[in-house]
Amino acid sequence: MSNIIGNYVGGSRVNPADGTLQDVFNPSTGEVSGQVRLSKATDLDDTVKVASAAALEWGATPALKRAQVMFRFKRLLEENADKIATTISSEHGKTHEDALGEVSRGIETVEFACGIPHLLKGTFSEQAATSIDVYSVPQALGVVAGITPFNFPAMVPIWMFPNAIACGNAFILKPSERDPSVTLILADLLKQAGLPDGVFNVMQGDKVVVDAILDNPDISAVSFVGSTPVAKYIYTRGTSNGKRVQALGGAKNHMIIMPDADMDQAVDALMGAGYGSAGERCMAVSVPVPVGDKVADELMERMVPLVEKLPVGPPEDTNAAMGPVITKQSLERISSLLQSGVDQGAKLLVDGRSLKVPGHENGFFIGGSLFDQVTPEMDIYKEEIFGPVLSTVRTENYEEAIKLVNENPYGNGVAIFTRDGDAARDCVNRIQVGMVGINVPIPVPVGYHSFGGWKQSLYGSHHIYGPDTIHFYTRLKAITSRWPTGIKSGAQFNFPTMS
Ligand code: NAD
Fold first, then answer.
1. Does the Cβ of 248 fall within 6 Å of ligand 1?
2. How far, in Å, is the centroid of ligand 1 from the Cα of 213?
3. How far is the CA of 457 from the centre of ligand 1 (A)?
4. DSSP letter at 431?
5. 308 lines ligand 1 (CB under 6 A)
6. Looking at 114, 167, 282, 427, which residue is catalytic?
7. Can you name the CATH fold of 253-438?
8. Ligand 1 touching residue 468 (CB < 6 A)
9. Torsion angle of C-alpha atoms 111, 277, 329, 24, degrees rounded to 10
10. Is the CB of 250 under 6 A from ligand 1?
């Protein structure tokens, strides 16, 4: 096997001579396409030293110069979008268009980072007391790290490092070991954009290197995106070591369909948000919630033929709406969850398990599946399936729909489809979810707002990218200053006040 996927440290690709190798698959053929070298804790510690040295100089570089690197990086991402998308699809399996969409949404957050001089201006209060000025400046933290999931191997890292770097930090990225290659392309492009060596580093690996990140005292902050149990673990261990941590977790996103909804719009939205990227999106809709049996019956009647005909294929098939899932284990887990739904009494209206993609018999493909009559006690409702499965929960009225969503332990995204502004407004006000779509099924905020769920979908108090990210990757310093004026006030022993 010649394709060994290694690290990126100090401005170069490096491949440690030792360390365990783990297979990386092409999900649409089921074949091994490469092997990722899992870093050891000592590799991480060495990399932190490189990053710490680079952070000193980079943090002192004028913000405008840092922004110029981001401008060039943005242009390079655009020029290389096709190559990046092809690499994503070859290890993730998503369609080429979907991968291009991921790159494009990533670029949005780089555009935000290009405005960093403005974002780091701080605040100034002249004459806060006689002859005294007070100002606050956000300063870089030093070395920060990001740990990312498989489902957006380029976009989620880009949610983190451009803003972290623009703020003046050095960054260590630990990508998913299931689709690691694209991060090395991103590293090459940053270097081409003029980023000094050591400011951006990639450490391939698994829990071993994650734990080394969480325990290294010279890493100040950790951004994590992945499943909820791991998010909770990262948050607990990272914060107990005194780090700032934002840990975004899993999801179970509901879509409420009101009786007055535009059904054409709702059906299109459900198809795209439920089955796009084979349901492997943290903002995928997984639970349609029709309000009233009339809406539910019509919805199921319209959805069944569409799901049955859902085109599935490898990334190079331009007709495919979705590709395979990430691994054989994931395929088996989704299949067994489908069976649990049947066994626990849900109605499986479309069963994707028998799907075969000609010429790709060993690929990790599964067709779209549609359940009706799901109840909250069933495993298919409780578990994040992370596959192309919609589990419909019927509700009698709007209040029941709101209660269902609010009682779910996750709170990433929710959508309401309605023509009733009053209902939509009430939903926005009362729903216990971080990101809400009104007739928008995947309400991922644009790059100049911030992204984050509530409840078990986010541990920590900062959302990711956008304005919140600037607070996360910097710390404020408040300066109170007085220059000699010639006025003598003598020693003051009381606590200083305005008078
Ligand atoms: P995952 O939690 O298995 O892995 C995420 C990262 O954590 C990877 O880099 C992995 O190497 C590392 N990791 C895995 N197990 C670990 C352990 N025991 N200890 C330490 N590190 C560990 O997630 P995944 O399967 O790669 O991605 C899918 C999950 O990510 C889904 O739950 C999805 O909802 C979630 N996700 C959430 C968001 C969001 O913004 N909230 C975005 C994308 C994905």
1. yes
2. 15
3. 12
4. -
5. no
6. 282
7. Aldehyde Dehydrogenase; Chain A, domain 2 (3.40.309)
8. no
9. -50
10. yes
Residue 227, exposed/middle/buried by CB under 10 A (0-12, 13-18, 19+)?
Answer: middle
Per-residue b or e along 249-269, where b marks 16 or more CB atoms closer than 10 Å to that residue's CB: bbbbbbbbbbbebeeeebbeb
Give me the long-range contacts of 229-236 (CB less than 8 A, separation at least 24).
Answer: 231/458, 231/459, 232/456, 232/459, 234/147, 234/210, 234/459, 235/459, 235/460
* pLDDT at position 71: 98
Instruction: State which residues of the chain have pLDDT below 50.
Output: none
Topology of domain 4-249+457-479, CATH: Aldehyde Dehydrogenase; Chain A, domain 1 (3.40.605)
384 lines ligand 1 (CB under 6 A): yes
How many CB atoms sit inside 10 A of residue 184's CB? 18
Residue 282 is a catalytic residue: yes
Where does CATH 3.40.605.10 sit in the chain? 4-249+457-479
Distance CA(182)–CA(88), nearest Å, equals 6
pLDDT at 431: 98
pLDDT at 486: 84
How is residue 475 written in tokens? 């710390």
pLDDT in tens, 298-313: 999 999 999 999 999 9
One-character DSSP codes across 432-459: --SEEEES-SS-PPPTTS-B--EETTEE
What does pTM read for this prediction?
A: 0.97
Give me ligand 1 centre to Cα 239, in Å: 18
d(CA 388, CA 143) in angstroms, rounded, equals 38
Q: Which of 210, 215, 233, 236 to mutate to test the pocket of ligand 1 (most atoms within 8 A of CB)?
A: 210
The residue whose CB lies within 8 Å of the most ligand 1 atoms, and thus the one to mutate among 36, 94, 227, 450, is: 227
